[in-house]
Amino acid sequence: MNMAGADSFDDYLSQVSNEARTALERLRKTIKSAAPDTTETISYQMPTFKYRGRALVGFAAFKDHCSLFPYSKKVMEVLEEDLRPYDISGKGATIRFTTDKPLPAALVKKVVKARIEEIESRSRP
Q: Which pLDDT score, from 0 to 100, does residue 97 have?
């Protein structure tokens, strides 16, 4: 899969498998409900939600899995217990999942809320 040319969420999602598209659409809807004041953009060649001009979370489809990117090691540490059942190996802040076992909405909302709190705390004087 080469989504290098994607210029929107819908364009990106049109280029992934049906299974990945279904999982990522569900993820998109959950993120949007947890953070309605976000904008959708493509960053690092993947769909990314921005909040107050900063990357909030992103997601992507790969050959054998999908990933949610909280863009924050701190969020990964804060939610360590909640993330224990998931594959969070690799560099940086990455939560991997398969299309047949998508991330629960409650966990996604926790990640988004923790990330919003982190961004807001950085912008406080």
A: 95
